[in-house]
User: Fold this.
Amino acid sequence: MCAVTIQVGDLYAQPRGSNLTADAPAGQATWIWYPGDYAVWLANKMQNRRTERGAFLPVFWKMDSHYVLVEFHKDINLSHPDTIQIAVEGRYNVKIDGKAITGNLKTIQLPKGQHRLSLKVYNQAAVPAIYVKGNQVISDGSWQVTFEDKEWIDASGKASDKSGTTYEHAGYWNFNTAANKPSAFQLQTVPASPVKRTVLPSGSVLLDFGKETFGFIRLKEVSGKGVVNIYYGESKAEALSRDSCETLDRIEFTTPVNNFDTTTASTKAFRYVQIDAPKAVKIGQVDMLYEYAPVTSRGAFSCSDSLINKIWQVAAYTLHLNTREFFIDGIKRDRWIWSGDANQSFLMNYYLYFDQPTVKRTLYALRGKDPVTSHINTIMDYSFYWFMAVKDYYEYSGDAELVKTIYPKMQTLMRYCLSRTDKDGFMEGLSGDWVFIDWADHLTKKGALSFEQLLFCQSLETMAICANVCGDKAGAKKYQNLASQLKAKLFSVFWDSERHAFIHRIFKGKKDEAVFRYTNMFALLLGYLSPVQRKEVITHVLLNNQVQAIHTPYMRFYELAALCVADSQKVVTREIKSYWGGMLQKGATSFWEEYDPAAKGDAQYAMYGRPFGKSLCHAWGASPIYLLGKYYLGVQPTSPGYKTYEVKPALGGLKWIKGSVPFAKGDIQIYCDQKQIKVKTTGQTEKGTLIFHSRTQPRTNLGTIKQTSEQAYTLELHTGQQYVVNYEAI
Amino acid sequence: MCAVTIQVGDLYAQPRGSNLTADAPAGQATWIWYPGDYAVWLANKMQNRRTERGAFLPVFWKMDSHYVLVEFHKDINLSHPDTIQIAVEGRYNVKIDGKAITGNLKTIQLPKGQHRLSLKVYNQAAVPAIYVKGNQVISDGSWQVTFEDKEWIDASGKASDKSGTTYEHAGYWNFNTAANKPSAFQLQTVPASPVKRTVLPSGSVLLDFGKETFGFIRLKEVSGKGVVNIYYGESKAEALSRDSCETLDRIEFTTPVNNFDTTTASTKAFRYVQIDAPKAVKIGQVDMLYEYAPVTSRGAFSCSDSLINKIWQVAAYTLHLNTREFFIDGIKRDRWIWSGDANQSFLMNYYLYFDQPTVKRTLYALRGKDPVTSHINTIMDYSFYWFMAVKDYYEYSGDAELVKTIYPKMQTLMRYCLSRTDKDGFMEGLSGDWVFIDWADHLTKKGALSFEQLLFCQSLETMAICANVCGDKAGAKKYQNLASQLKAKLFSVFWDSERHAFIHRIFKGKKDEAVFRYTNMFALLLGYLSPVQRKEVITHVLLNNQVQAIHTPYMRFYELAALCVADSQKVVTREIKSYWGGMLQKGATSFWEEYDPAAKGDAQYAMYGRPFGKSLCHAWGASPIYLLGKYYLGVQPTSPGYKTYEVKPALGGLKWIKGSVPFAKGDIQIYCDQKQIKVKTTGQTEKGTLIFHSRTQPRTNLGTIKQTSEQAYTLELHTGQQYVVNYEAI
Assistant:
């Protein structure tokens, strides 16, 4: 296996359209629907596109549906009469002040004064949605919606009391014209050509698109009659393996065609494609339609090390391929939304796109609808990651509206969790629960696992935070109490002072004193440890080679983050270069689902008992995006939505680093070397804090540097200013 | 208002096709789906056809959806290989022993031996459904289905434990060929012509179809250009009232047509139709497509009184018009499924069609899906009627399968009810609850109403019965205890020994001692009263004119049933003749939603504050079907599914009665006059009991008559025998 040469910049050269994933700007009419319903519907559509060797392969958990009948209304006060245009997806009525209009329901005259404009829409196949545009009245997120308006009248014609009805603010995205119907949404495409064409001994043709990619194959100028088989490969070996490649297409020309162009019906992931046509079929040309989400890369990172830069670029490309209608796990398979995987994509997103709509859609899609009949994706830890992801989203974005809308669904999922606790208040895997943690040897999953309790505890803390955002004080108190009790129990039962670490589990009433990295690194990351325990965990677990190593990029994400929190960026730099650099050495053009440096040849592509089961483009492989943004550039919010934030640059052994970190209302640009730190924030924040160490007394061009302890300094940052700090790195 | 002459037999002359509503016969391949889902989907379709003066008028409660992704499987043991044909509604895969098949998924070879055949289907717009037909393997109700199969595999390819998954038996109806797709279902139609055509002074044309009817209007041989307005009327006055008729159609010929035939897009209810065409539009002919459910009338009744016979015929016609995809309330409006209304249709159905599939569909559609967010139809009493209807269905049909499938949904609805009780365990109308009881003056609905508690108690008893059917002994005990406690409280709080009756309610801690018929007649009907209380209620409430009279056929249903239970059939005969006969006198060709004998002229059509708001064809108007079958022919099951039953004929002042009562597996034919009773049962039962009184010693041609008390006798009945008893009626 020879390493390919990667052209940095070329690899990540992405088509860029208008930023389709941004929300509609305020004051603009946009299509609206019941909040979360569009995500549920679109997720069904996307997740039902998976195939395995031609066979349809859907998810194995409950798929929910949108509400098929929805009432929308808005109370308006018009200074003048308004003429409004209405577009609707579904069968509908329009009421003004409760009275139905008949005749033309597409253009309506609204009289001046105080009125209630209501529409009620039925749509079984797609999401009931409306678009209203007048001079004074527009459809937007301020509309009220409900799935049960309870508007009965009695025999005399008197209207009911409606106080039992819960109204929500409408959901929306960026369908900002009447013609741009939500149900017609498709990702964008652009043609791309193979970089190499090889005729195989069998006569079939192998195309190499130069790098991992995704889209439709186009057969052009086809003549003749017969069956064309297309075998896809993320690796060359996979595309060559007709019997074992994971995905394939079969295009049958039952009647002769002449100079005919055709495109595959569904998208596939591949770098290599084997086209096997019988002699009776001539194909003029083959290329592809690359399909992509036109998200904007606002984050950036570069440094003195070209391998790290290459890794960042490939990671960004990997994340981009896996950022589609939603954040998915991998583009070859499963192409599904997995909570544990999405949780990492969310975090990477905050350092690359800061695309809030994709996070929101993914959160809604994962959670689905009530009733809760199993854990998210059937996996216990994945329910917890979902809670934690809501907390992260709120911290990064400050979007209290989402929290308020989704809080009832948080409550019902937490109720489900709490209904499955044992006498100690712990959650064990019950019948039908998948306990995942990681793909790893020796990692037993029966009983009460310390890892699951830790995530459960964090989920309860998330509930308390979100309850406060929603003004639910009783809920906040209840959840905080439950979290505190569980935390106390977690330490008393699982913390082992002899092992200086959390042990793995209790099973059948007995402690299993095995120590794994998982619980310990998460406890560090989540700030659950005392200063003493923190040191113990770093020494006895994180930096201890006796503790079983982690092989998946999935858990390396958290492991390396924990090392950064332990100020071990130098170790992390080495690990990134060796692990992700190792994949590049093996020819990777995107990062993998799992990587074992020791695996050789085609064996490295095997997983799930199948020779090419492994995904070679997996979102969780892109973690350097997050690590380099959060722990090298050192930027993170310290209050929701970057109202306040910190910048704590760390070179991690690199000579210099520079980059940009986006947030909802601006960007933070950082440069750092051994002698100088430069920071400039643009956009809307209250203040930031630069945190750094210096051997010598640092100097700044602006503001006043404060010393917080020996060699430790801070500088308050304000937006629009370019701060230049001269210092001497330790 | 002159009385029309009703041709008995003519009025109820119904087109009869194959009995489409019967279930698929055993051993025959049929389309299958997740149980209940087809009803939910079809109900959405049907209930979203209501319009009011052209405006779409959907329901105001939550509409649910089918599961969009469903797994079907069947474990089979084949003596020989089998070739099976597969038809599917939706995108699907096929697995044999867990391994997906590729290629042709319409014809599949199954090897001999023990195998699991699985299909997984996705369909957002319609219900995922499959049809499988081989020599040995067919799709039927024995297949297992689930909406979450939880079939994950770990990294090594090992399959998960699946024990957390709940499988149900598949639902089905009578789509018994591959081509007969469930999503394409439509009721049958047959052309019908108006009996009278009148040109109005305005130039528009008034058509009279001779009786209440339902369907599409067809305009034939239309030429010209312009707008044709169609105004529908259940009464002549309504069709003539362009401004106030409840339903209308507007057909616009935007470009000139020539000799063109067109049909209205949706069905309407009417007897009269006003066709208003401009001069520029010539219409050759107008007729209708009568739309109907091809159910078979198996029950029959006739007697010595021709008015009663006419009433029975019109009632049967009224019920037939309201028996559609589901049992609906009325054909003009609402055309919805209301639990209180359906409960009566179910009971009438047991004495007319004994059509189980329509009952099951209606029960599923009413209940919808979890979570429960409001009472059924938003009405508290309607939740209770639903429970009671399940009990009735089980008693009449003996269908334990339905009870087992629907029991989890009974539990969740009951949990919702129990979560809304007050400190006394009573259910008051909370915010968003509609408390209905009846359309009646002075009937206050705030506070804890004795009527609601009585129905709640019966619902709890139903839960206990169904828990036992499902083998849920703990549940049975719990619900029985709750029922007993509530019953005790009901009597201690609401029974007033001075008034010899249940009083109306407690409001703000105080008793409201008003006495209404409702609680008292239901207590009698449900067997809640001691012999003494029973007599008190009959004397002081039922037969007491001081107690406010009931004006709706809806509550007359129960009132007259209670009078029958009180052996007052003679009173009931008089009431039927005066009340239903009164409607006939007013020109009714089907029975009304509400009837006030005192109302005159067009005022009698007003309701809900609208001049023609009243429905003149309302299912609940058809109660004579039930009363005459159950309390005159006197037939009812005494153990589930007519395993045992009683026949207790009552002449109610008539010279003779005869008729037939259907049950799932047979029919019971009865003739009775003052001197002779004849009974013949065909079909499958264990035994029946004829119960009668005689002044003299009765004689029988078969079996042995037993005397049970003075002048009271019984005779055991066996199937296939014609019993002739000579006696002398008291």
